[in-house]
Amino acid sequence: MSEVNENAAIGNSSSPNNGNSNKIKNIIGVMSGKGGVGKSTVTTLIARELNNKGYKVGILDADITGPSIPRLMNMEDIRAFSSNNSIIPVVSDEGIKMISLNFLIEDENSPVIWRGPMIGNIVQQFYNDVLWEELDYLLIDMPPGTGDVALTVMQSIPLTGIVMVSIPQNLVSMIVAKAVNMANQLKVPVIGLVQNMSYVKCPGCSEKIEIFEAPEMEAFLSEMNLELLGELPMTKEIINYSRTNDSLSEDVRGTVEAMTEKIEVFCKKNKLRMFLR
Ligand SMILES: Nc1ncnc2c1ncn2[C@@H]1O[C@H](COP(=O)(O)OP(=O)(O)OP(=O)(O)O)[C@@H](O)[C@H]1O
Ligand SMILES: [Mg+2]
């Protein structure tokens, strides 16, 4: 079992609940149901875009057994610490606050061998006991699946909405449909769907090559009542952007900007809905 950093407040029952001092305006879950489709990558793309626009942004890595935010944000050597029993998040150079179990354990390669309820508790602590302070957007990078953690997040964290991530494959769509149905059953709004690895651009002629081919995507979107937030290509630049400060090409940047704007609009409308209630 993995050793948690002694300086951190994890598991400490006397740790205070920062729920009252944290002021988080919008909380976005990034989910899929399926593993390896790009949830964490899309989380970092949206977080960095929101941050570039001047918002205060945080990322909560709810993938306790397979945390990838520290590596994707190039911060794997940094450790979080605690003060007055609160967990102080790690802050990226650009100012994004982050918490992940890998910031709290000595060795990022140690496996976390815990049962579901304990993992759920950690996720709740990441929300309640981390000193997020004021945030415009908190993004929650969910683990694959529709199990314990997804349930804990949806039931105990006041999500503004969920961004679903998929790739154009029949089998994946079926699993994403489960995640959408789960959100619907728990009355958590789904903001829309990001179709990741949607195509590859031919380096010679710039033609879009659809590797997976999913002619039924339109039907899937309308059947699930999902808005398409954007289609991202399969490209090294997306992998590199996560790890470095390489800039994105114009069309990928445009897609990220457009999907982030749709998320902002959804959040603004949601605020208005809450206000008018
Ligand atoms: N658009 C893309 N083009 C190329 N590679 C990508 C793209 N999106 C993600 N990847 C790569 O695919 C792999 C999986 O991505 P990522 O870790 O974001 O998926 P995930 O859904 O969060 O996975 P998990 O379910 O394990 O948490 C990573 O190696 C990532 O760099
Ligand atoms: Mg992930």
UniProtKB/TrEMBL annotation:
<protein>
    <recommendedName>
        <fullName>Iron-sulfur cluster carrier protein</fullName>
    </recommendedName>
</protein>
<dbReference type="InterPro" id="IPR000808">
    <property type="entry name" value="Mrp-like_CS"/>
</dbReference>
<comment type="similarity">
    <text>Belongs to the Mrp/NBP35 ATP-binding proteins family.</text>
</comment>
<dbReference type="InterPro" id="IPR027417">
    <property type="entry name" value="P-loop_NTPase"/>
</dbReference>
<keyword id="KW-0479">Metal-binding</keyword>
<comment type="function">
    <text>Binds and transfers iron-sulfur (Fe-S) clusters to target apoproteins. Can hydrolyze ATP.</text>
</comment>
<keyword id="KW-0408">Iron</keyword>
<keyword id="KW-0411">Iron-sulfur</keyword>
<feature type="binding site">
    <location>
        <begin position="33"/>
        <end position="40"/>
    </location>
    <ligand>
        <name>ATP</name>
    </ligand>
</feature>
<dbReference type="GO" id="GO:0140663">
    <property type="term" value="F:ATP-dependent FeS chaperone activity"/>
</dbReference>
<keyword id="KW-0547">Nucleotide-binding</keyword>
<dbReference type="Pfam" id="PF10609">
    <property type="entry name" value="ParA"/>
</dbReference>
<keyword id="KW-0378">Hydrolase</keyword>
<keyword id="KW-0067">ATP-binding</keyword>
<dbReference type="InterPro" id="IPR044304">
    <property type="entry name" value="NUBPL-like"/>
</dbReference>
<dbReference type="GO" id="GO:0046872">
    <property type="term" value="F:metal ion binding"/>
</dbReference>
<dbReference type="GO" id="GO:0005524">
    <property type="term" value="F:ATP binding"/>
</dbReference>
<dbReference type="InterPro" id="IPR033756">
    <property type="entry name" value="YlxH/NBP35"/>
</dbReference>
<comment type="subunit">
    <text>Homodimer.</text>
</comment>
<dbReference type="GO" id="GO:0051539">
    <property type="term" value="F:4 iron, 4 sulfur cluster binding"/>
</dbReference>
<dbReference type="GO" id="GO:0016226">
    <property type="term" value="P:iron-sulfur cluster assembly"/>
</dbReference>
<dbReference type="GO" id="GO:0016887">
    <property type="term" value="F:ATP hydrolysis activity"/>
</dbReference>
<dbReference type="InterPro" id="IPR019591">
    <property type="entry name" value="Mrp/NBP35_ATP-bd"/>
</dbReference>
